[in-house]
Fold this protein.
Amino acid sequence: MDEQLRIGLVGAGPWAHGVHAPGIADHPGTTLTTVWARRPDAARELAESHGASVSSTLEELLGQVDAVAFAVPPAVQAELALEAAKAGKHVILEKPIAPDLAAAEQLTDAVVSAGVASLVVFTLRYAVETREWLEDLAAVGGWTGGGARWLSGALLAGPYSASPWRHDSGALADVGPHVVDLLDAALGPITDVLAAHRSPQDLWQLVFAHEGGATSTATLSMNLPIEPSVTEIAVYGEHGYRALQRRPVPGVERFTALLDDFAAMIATGTTTHPCDVRRGLHVQRILHRVLQVAGA
């Protein structure tokens, strides 16, 4: 790109501080132009630390940028990203993209109708090791099953333990999108939820059916005293067992890779990507089905 992509950041919480703002500010193809958040003092502190301005309204932010990155709860994002898309701004969306399926469908329709680029922050999908793992699985084939475990104490202590929406929606909404996305990408599209159970302590046990006959399981919790967190995903079949080997790198590294793709999409006029808003909607449909099966 001849000029840096001007990005506005909506939100000034821990994830915005640790990932969004430094990622956008330090990327060679983007510039953090302005920040808007419901807490003006937090927005000002974040903006000043990265040489950005502070917007007093969403409308003010939209008037200064080419794209908007969201670091806010799903219900807030669904409403504000809708306005950004209607204003013709490209969007970087957190997962899940909305609080429910209806809102996710509405947001997706708006983004597609506007013809803007979109990416969802499925952070693991932008890691080199994940891309290589998925490419290898696709090349070999013959996978009949898989499983994932994502267990942590993130809601017991730490920077996200005071997040109301995470406590209200639990592990399914926060880490569930990552697990669903990876299992779906590894074994083929999830076509049904065969079983779903949530304990009173928010421990989820899930069983998925995939196109082509494969099945997978997932165990999720953010309320277990486990340090460090357990994040495991693997598939198995006629060629053995293949686990995703994750490097212990900060989230901002993967966000930088996301920005590489985002800037390239806009420079080339591309609006489709394996992790665009349509992918976010697909994952949201599966989460919706999980809640139906669990009777939640």
